[in-house]
Design brief:
Blueprint: H1 2-54, H2 58-99
Helix pairs in contact: 1-2
Length: about 100
């Protein structure tokens, strides 16, 4: 009985640690995503305003706006990739815990 209790306690501790780590990672990723989104929006506004003030040619403004959209898409993809990696890691850890 003692061995079973030890195993159960160890499993509970491992699961709690995994959950805490996952929550922390998700929160950090979310905060980083928000900060980067705000930063990108500020950059977009500044760049577009500067370009429109300095040069009154539509072509350059369009190019800058396309570039900014690409940057935002890249940021979103990076955040999604991080979330997928974290989820995969959690699944692996849970499977290891369950198997052991």
């Amino acid at each position: 009985m003692e061995e079973e209790r030890v195993v159960v306690v160890v499993l509970v501790v491992v699961v709690v640690v995994v959950v805490v780590v996952v929550v922390v990672v998700v929160v950090v990723v979310a905060v980083v995503a928000v900060v980067e989104a705000v930063f990108v929006v500020i950059v977009v506004v500044v760049v577009v305003v500067v370009v429109e003030v300095v040069v009154v040619k539509g072509v350059i403004v369009v190019v800058v706006e396309i570039f900014v959209v690409v940057v935002v898409v890249v940021e979103i993809v990076v955040v999604l990739v991080v979330l997928v990696v974290v989820a995969a890691a959690v699944v692996v850890v849970v499977e290891i815990v369950v198997v052991s």
